[in-house]
Design brief:
The protein is an alpha+beta fold and about 210 residues long. The chain has 4 helices and 8 strands; from the N terminus they run H-H-H-E-E-E-E-E-E-E-H-E. The chain has one domain. It has an 8-stranded antiparallel β-sheet with strand order 1-2-3-4-5-6-7-8. Keywords: Signal.
């Protein structure tokens, strides 16, 4: 029940963050001139205040109904450091439940994953492929697995990931992001790493910020 309450709270936070991002409009003056809106300056060329460079959003991961049931959320706060660079942090929580009969005829399994990551995105060839970013991040995930009426098994894994993100802007401070990453620290022989990353060094992610 506590995990369900946590999940509902994070989902509400994510929803409000998405709504905030969608209300952010582009500078009309610059768009009327046929140019893309600046990300760190006003149409008059003055630097945008810190608060107007922030981007809020997140994503939903591990979505699956039935047996197993799985659902996760990952709120994001990002900052437009320069016209071509975004830095940010994200928290994540994923709940997975295998009912009795999946692995054992009498016992179910509950898995909780708590994560935090910091990331950097750099738009490296805007004149050729705008909105395509080199993406690097460091991610730490704590993993807890509990078979009914037994002591939980816990562990953590830290991994650097590198790849690319394509961002489709919706407004100056909000977009849809498709990310493809490779885990440089993936170890298939490590059961925690195997469980957290689903048996593959590749990570695909859809997020909104």
């Amino acid at each position: 029940m506590n995990h369900i309450r946590k999940l509902l709270f994070i989902t509400a936070l994510l929803s409000s963050s998405l709504a905030f991002g969608q209300l952010t409009e582009d500078p009309d003056e610059r768009r009327d001139q046929g140019r893309d809106p600046l990300k760190t300056q006003t149409p008059e060329g003055r630097p945008l205040p810190f608060g107007q460079r922030l981007r809020f959003g997140g994503g939903i991961n591990g979505f699956q109904f039935g047996n197993p049931f799985s659902l996760g959320v990952a709120p994001v706060v990002a900052y437009q450091a320069t016209e071509r660079m975004i830095v940010g942090v994200s928290l994540s929580y994923t709940y997975t439940r295998y009912k009795a009969g999946y692995f054992s005829p009498t016992q179910g399994i509950t898995i909780n994953q708590y994560g935090v990551r910091g990331f950097v995105m750099y738009e490296f060839i805007p004149s050729i492929l705008p909105n395509l970013y080199l993406h690097g991040e460091l991610q730490n995930t704590t993993y807890q697995q509990k078979v009914d009426q037994t002591t939980p098994i816990t562990g953590s894994v830290t991994a650097p990931l590198v790849g690319v993100t394509y961002s489709q802007p919706i407004s100056r401070r909000f977009g849809v992001n498709l990310t493809a990453l490779y885990n440089l620290n993936y170890k298939p022989s490590d059961p925690i790493s195997y469980q957290v990353y689903g048996g593959t060094p590749f990570v695909l992610r859809l997020s909104f910020f």
